[in-house]
Amino acid sequence: MDNGVQLYLDLLKKTLTNVIYEDPSNPAYPTGPADPRPHGDYDPTRRAGGEDWPLTAHTMVGLKRLDNVQECVERVLADNVPGDLIETGVWRGGVCIFMRGVLKAHGVHDRTVWVADSFQGMPQVGPEGRPRDHRMKMHEFNDVLGIPLEQVRENFRRYDLLDESVKFLPGWFRDTMPTAPVERLAVLRLDGDLYESTMDVLENLYPKLSVGGYVIIDDYGLRTCAEAVHDYRDAHGITEEIVTVDKFGVYWRRTS
User: Fold this and answer.
1) DSSP 241
2) Domain for residue 197, yes or no?
3) Alpha helix (H) residue ranges in the chain
4) Is residue 25 part of a domain?
5) Mean pLDDT, residues 123-131 taken together
6) Measured between alpha carbons, how far is 244 from 217 in angstroms, rounded to an integer?
7) Position 256 pLDDT exceeds 80
8) How far is residue 99's CA from residue 114's CA, in Å, rounded to a whole number?
9) Is 150 within a domain?
């Protein structure tokens, strides 16, 4: 790889995660017995592993999961795997901004980055919802998680990465995924937390993932998400090895 390309992408990752200015973690980040440490001060270990909600950074996934995104995107480019890139659940847009940055750094202009989100936070799920989702109270944090579409667009613009190769899919996944105008995907990245959100995306978009493409699951560390992943894989006979990225993220490469 050209040294200038790698320098740009490394700087982009550091900027998107804000490890340069070290903004604090939002104290609203939910913790439990497995992680009782109080949030507030910047913690480089947490930031690298995507284990906090930064106050100002444009992504919460951390450096390790951005490294994984770069690896997957560059591999499909090197192997000429056809298709676009998508993230479902984008928060402030940082991962999609990085995807567009990787494409632009490599001079790729014939792939779209799809940015799919409700742009109003997480849905409230009642007892009639999918298994265990009714126990998830993520909607209680929508003042942190609900980032308006125009703010995400503005974040792209600030990096000079808002162009015709970026397209937005606003709305709940149950409504947008069945009719999403996506023809073929090379990288499918899910960050929806809930069973329902994860299953809605897999059922509608995994069939569009090219052989040789990657599916990345950001919230595999959450029981609701992991259950949806395994239910879908079992139902469709998917046996590719699930590779761990960090505490929360995993991925696999489609081989058939």
Assistant:
1) P
2) yes
3) 3-17, 44-48, 62-78, 94-105, 142-145, 149-158, 173-176, 195-205, 223-236
4) no
5) 64
6) 10
7) yes
8) 10
9) yes
